[in-house]
Amino acid sequence: MSRPPGPSSVLISRIDHLSRLLESLPCTLPLDPPDSTYNFGLDTELVAEEGHWYAFNRNLEVCFETYKLRDGASIVFKERGSRYKALIQMFKITMKALTKDSERDFLREVWLERLISAAQLQGARIPARTEEEKAEQWKRLAKYSERDREIARVEEEVEKAERKEHRNSQDLTLLGKGHRTASDGGTRQERHSRTNWFHPFLWVHIDTIAPKVSWSASEIAKRLARSEPKLFSHLNKGTVQRWIDKDSKREWSPITKQNVERQCALGGSGQTGVLGKHPEIVKAISDTLRGLRDSRVPVSVVIARSIMISTIREWDAQLLEKFKCSEKFVRAFLASVLNWSARMGTSCSSASAS
Prior knowledge:
Layout (H helix, E strand, L loop, with lengths): L8 H15 L20 H7 L1 H13 L19 H14 L3 H21 L9 H38 L3 E3 L4 E2 L7 E2 L10 H10 L7 H11 L1 H4 L4 H7 L10 H9 L16 H16 L4 E2 H16 L2 H4 L4 H12 L3 E3 L10
Antiparallel strand pairs: 1-4, 1-5, 2-3
Helix pairs in contact: 1-4, 1-5, 2-3, 8-10, 12-13
């Protein structure tokens, strides 16, 4: 099967033209300001879920805050400096990833030519090129298409492999009190507490920043970590993504709003599902698990599930015919009854008794 053709030399030339314009923006603009909102780059999760075009468009909407512009208004560059190198790189990667000329033409019209015009309106002027510079540009254009497409494909495969390896290495371990492990020479590992992000003192920051970054989960996490590192250094994009409404993507979900009103999530609610009619079984399971925790034995989901199954079989074996004691049920039981949270294990030995 033949590979799809890469971007045309004319299109690449226009991207290079934008790059030169951005290098020639007026000196009155601040140079690489520390509080910049320009975080150019493709979100790998968005690329995997929605495609390159969506991730590219989303990033530029957030960086240039186009949602604040009136119809027909021009984009305004707020700074000059090195951050635009990432923008040009993102253009090239996206152009290579798009397989149809119609898609590339659309991107050129919507963003590339628009940014070129905006730079020119702000006074960007490219100095005349020397003959050596012209010759160097033609060399780059000749080498660009086939070689860079292959590099991009290899890099994408490596990223996919790394994400898969990271998921496979996850070992959720339930935290009770601090415990010692063999791998760290008996060093005591302190308990990791679960942050209540819905607390008014924290949520006010989250709720304020969300509309400013167009409800981008990654930007919300980055901005908060940068502005309030002591409070939000552990907040990640995945957590924020679960709070955002899946349909509108421009507001918090109904469940999130309820949690904010209650100022906490529904941990420790005491709900036990199918075991609700068997308090004696719930108590027996809870006592056994608490005993393990008090003995400083880390309790994994697998261990908790085996204890639950054996206890249920001892008290009323017929219950196991009505439902499967799945890992999902075990996690829900531990969160609801014992108010235990789960975390990612740091080593294989973390799932066994020391």
